[in-house]
Design a protein that fits this description.
Length: 472
Amino acid sequence: MKVVPIILSGGVGARLWPVSRETHPKPFIKLADGESLLQKAFSRAKALPHVAEILTVTNRELYFKTRDEYRAVNAGQVATSYILEPFGRNTAPAIAAAANYVAETYGDDAILVVLPADHLIEKRDAFLAAVNDAIELAKRGLLVTFGIQPTFPETGFGYIESEGNKVHRFVEKPSLEKAQEYLASGRYLWNAGMFCFKASTFLDELDRCAHDIASAVRKCVNASEKIMHSSSMQIELDAALFKQVPDLSVDYAVMERSQCVAVVPCDFGWSDIGSWSALSALVPADEHGNSWQGDVMLRDSSDCYVQSERRLVSGVGLENLIIIDTADALLIVDRNKVQDVKKVVEHLKAMGHPAYREHQTMHRPWGTYTVIEQGDRFKIKRIEVKPGASLSLQMHHHRSEHWVVVSGQAKVVNGDQEFFVNTNESTFIPAGHKHRLENPGQVELVMIEVQCGDYLGEDDIVRFEDHYGRVK
């Protein structure tokens, strides 16, 4: 029996802005122990029985960042493959693409265990036991979902009415009054959005319940580029064909329509970390109900959570507030209004403000860059290049660049010249020159880049060669 965990990493997590953004979404948020939600999901998947490989469905832009996150907790122990979406199309198409790949690679009877990348599970042994129960049900041709024993009347989750493993019905997010009834009855479970089934079972039921999705995804996967690596597969879904796939959740498309659904009741310390209140609950509070991460000082305050990335944040006389301070954005919200943070993100997006999408520090396959300051006709960046990595061979039409090496050694291509720039040395790249920056050393290369020109947008780049597939 082959088991293939499927990690779905597609949500933005707008309620966790300003830490979660489109280019750094919720799965990449690091908890107090230094691990991200994505890394924790990978570690849970790795611990499952009979794992053939771990397959991740994510956005194309997040591929290299995801790969780096896995490398920190995997060390080559488990093969990893990726299905890369050009844009989101909800969970039914994502799981369908994964099931097609698994069936073709491991056969119809291979078991998929579908895990969201942004959930937290605290009781590992109880989780593994629940998955084992689900696998046994899946072998019998059932679509298995995981239902969480509710501990309070939550209005933000869907519910499953059940008896043992039998599912009576799925229920949409209820009113508070209904949620209280569900909790008191003992017949309802929270719908955790985790699943287990044979590849053939899911594909057959998808074809029966939502033939348009099944057909469109199958066509897209068959036509998409497949890149073989030594121990994995990378599938880049064709954008034009994927755009034709209906946007629908797996619950609506299959689970609520199928007649062969089962549930495993679970109690393994689950949380979807859906808001700052949920995340703050993971940090121990003092005698006044205050908790914090970073350099924080509170006086005469109660029931507050403060998180600061870089600087001291102090507060006096505060009550019931959540304060999140990042390099370029500050959020202050009443604990009773945390679900409305997504409205801030929607407003920023409508305005075209970059803070809805990206941080000051941007991740690239080769490392990171941080915008330190920018103004009329200039921009200053701190660039960090990983050992052995290099930027693409490129050219800019509208800007020149001054490079100063702060630490490490840079190998530079500048026009027809190739040379090394050592610590405390610099070079100048005129506009229109082909150039490349490479780190030939064993330690991180850190440099300061000063851009000057009449246009400094990131889209002023012409790539000629690239090690990361960004030149077709």
